[in-house]
Every structure is written in C-alpha cells, then in structure tokens.
UniProtKB/TrEMBL annotation:
<keyword id="KW-1133">Transmembrane helix</keyword>
<feature type="transmembrane region" description="Helical">
    <location>
        <begin position="110"/>
        <end position="127"/>
    </location>
</feature>
<feature type="transmembrane region" description="Helical">
    <location>
        <begin position="263"/>
        <end position="281"/>
    </location>
</feature>
<feature type="transmembrane region" description="Helical">
    <location>
        <begin position="6"/>
        <end position="29"/>
    </location>
</feature>
<keyword id="KW-0472">Membrane</keyword>
<dbReference type="InterPro" id="IPR018086">
    <property type="entry name" value="NADH_UbQ_OxRdtase_su1_CS"/>
</dbReference>
<keyword id="KW-0812">Transmembrane</keyword>
<dbReference type="Pfam" id="PF00146">
    <property type="entry name" value="NADHdh"/>
</dbReference>
<protein>
    <recommendedName>
        <fullName>NADH-quinone oxidoreductase subunit H</fullName>
    </recommendedName>
</protein>
<dbReference type="GO" id="GO:0005886">
    <property type="term" value="C:plasma membrane"/>
</dbReference>
<feature type="transmembrane region" description="Helical">
    <location>
        <begin position="75"/>
        <end position="98"/>
    </location>
</feature>
<feature type="transmembrane region" description="Helical">
    <location>
        <begin position="180"/>
        <end position="198"/>
    </location>
</feature>
<feature type="transmembrane region" description="Helical">
    <location>
        <begin position="147"/>
        <end position="168"/>
    </location>
</feature>
<dbReference type="InterPro" id="IPR001694">
    <property type="entry name" value="NADH_UbQ_OxRdtase_su1/FPO"/>
</dbReference>
<dbReference type="InterPro" id="IPR052561">
    <property type="entry name" value="ComplexI_Subunit1"/>
</dbReference>
<feature type="transmembrane region" description="Helical">
    <location>
        <begin position="238"/>
        <end position="257"/>
    </location>
</feature>
Length: 308
C-alpha cells in the first residue's frame, strides 16, 4: 500500500501528471489573456474556449519527425531537453501544495529548488552550443549572459524571507507569515524583485532576448523538432508554474484554510501567473545591454536593501 501511495504522489497527485496538466492549463491561460489584451481571440476551436489547444499542440509535436542535425553533437543534443524537463519536474516534487507534498520538507529544500530552477538556463545554453547552429549558439550565449544579470537579484529576493525567518526549510518559511503577518508588508520589495527575476528566468517578454524570433529565429531551440522540442516547451511551461508556486509559497502567506489549503495555494499561484502575463503583454523586448543594465541596477537596489 505504501508503494502505491508513493507512486500516486510521484506520478499522479501532486506529482508529474498534475504538474503537466497545470502547465498546459497555464499555457492556455497565458495565450488566451495575451491575445485578449491585444484585442485578439486566442485559442478557441480545440475544446471549450480553446482549452485543449495546448494539449493538441503537445500531441502534434510528439507525433512529428525527430531530427538531429548532422553537425550537432548527437548525445548532448538529444539528452539536454530531457535534463531540463527532469530538473523542473524534480523541483516541483519539493514544493508544498498546501499541506500536501510529494516528499517531506527538509532543511535546505529551498536551496535545492533554486538550484533545480536555475539548471534549465544552463541546459539551454548547452543545447544551443551543441546544435552547431549560428542561431542556436548566439541564443545560448544570450541566455547565459542574461543569467548572470537576473540570477543574483532573484536569489536575494527569494532568500530574504528565509533569512528573516531564520530557516532554510520552505514549509517553515511559508508558515512564518501566519505567525507574523506584518512581515508580509516587508516582503513587498522582495516580491517585486522576485516576479521580475522570474520573468527574466523564464525568458518572457521583455526578457525574451535569447530567442527573439525576429532576430535569431528560435534561439537555442532553432534546430529542435518533434519530441525534443515538445520536452523543451513543456519544461518551460512547467517552470512557469513551479516558479510562480515558489513565489506564492515564500511571499504570499502560509497554508491555512485546513483542507482547502491546496485550492488557496493554486489561487495564489494563478495570481502570480496573471501578473507575469500582464508584464508580457504590456512590455516590449529589451536589447541584451538594456537587460543587463535593468537587471543589475534597478531590481538589485530594493532587493539589496531588503536583504540587509
């Protein structure tokens, strides 16, 4: 019976299947709201209000021919999308969904999650590099350059509540705000920096420099197709959910509400996703030098003051 419970927790709820479903729903919400804010309709034909469009897109990619360029490093080119997918999926298993979690929370779990969420950017750089494509290499270099710009402010913002709480355990950080609700006022500065940092980490507008379609086609993923491209895109949507859930857990209060805590948790995560969608729809792409200046100066100042 214990083996069955572990299997359900890992692969069904609150495990991988639930995460993929939430990621595809977040993709639909992102595309639908983004279209509405631009006076367009967005997905509407596949399922009610186009709800099944992300599922259809995923199935289509999985059925496409999987091509590996002759010049590419075959092993690295093929394995890297799986590494990105596994890293984000592993990070999700450490997040407490309300009072539910796949694994028991442990001291230092927030550091493990941050490491796993930072790994995909390095994977994207290596994917572009080993594709032996000009667009891929150029996009990969942009991705790793941008990483050095946003990662420090993002880490300072996320770890500031941990320092204030005196614990590196995510569940204790989340419950701290229930005992000390006034601390959430102090969290506002860190929340702003964390949201901006997450937007850059996800390479979404205005920080989508590594894969600017009008400049370098698809960036690190230009040569990817079929199942590998499906894994990459799915990993990015999963990272949107996991990153938003991390911010909701750290900054937006503890669990509370008893058995309704998972619903409350999902609502908070959805609110963070909505903010990210509004940022994407309301901004234009920055140049790489503007990203560096913005990330290293503007968000770092309030984050640094909050850290101190």
């Amino acid at each position: 019976m214990e083996i069955v419970n572990v299997f359900v927790s890992l692969f069904i709820f609150p495990g991988l299947l639930s995460l993929i479903t939430l990621a595809l729903f977040a993709d639909w919400l992102d595309r639908k709201l983004y279209a509405r804010m631009q006076a367009r309709v967005g997905p509407q034909y596949t399922g009610p209000h186009g709800l099944l469009q992300p599922f259809a897109d995923l199935i289509k990619l999985l059925a496409k021919e999987d091509i590996t360029p002759k010049q590419a490093s075959s092993f690295m080119f093929n394995i890297l999308p799986l590494v990105a997918f596994a890293a984000v999926g592993s990070a999700a298993t450490l997040l407490p969904i309300g009072r539910l979690t796949v694994y028991n929370s442990f001291p230092g779990d927030i550091l493990v999650i941050l490491y796993l969420l930072g790994l995909p950017t390095l994977v994207y750089f290596l994917a572009g590099w080993h594709s032996s494509s000009f667009f891929g290499v150029f996009g990969g270099v942009r991705a790793i350059t941008q990483l050095f710009a946003y990662e420090v402010p993002f880490l300072i913002a996320i770890l500031s509540p941990a320092i204030l709480t005196g614990s590196w355990q995510l569940s204790e950080i989340a419950n701290h705000s229930l005992v000390h609700p006034l601390h959430m006022v102090v969290y506002i500065f860190g929340l702003i920096v964390a949201v901006i940092g997450l937007q850059a980490k996800l390479e979404r507008m205005p920080f989508d420099v590594p894969e600017a379609e009008t400049e370098i086609v698809g960036g690190p993923f230009t040569e990817y197709s079929g199942k590998k491209l499906a894994l990459v895109l799915l990993a990015r949507q999963m990272a949107l959910v996991v990153g938003s859930a991390l911010i909701a857990t750290v900054f937006l209060g503890g669990f509370g509400l008893g058995w309704m805590s998972p619903v409350w948790f999902l609502l908070k995560t959805g609110a963070v996703i909505l903010v990210l969608v509004f940022i994407r729809a309301g901004t234009a792409r920055l140049r790489i030098d503007q990203v560096i200046d913005f990330s290293c100066e503007t968000p770092h100042r309030p984050g640094h003051r909050f850290f101190l």
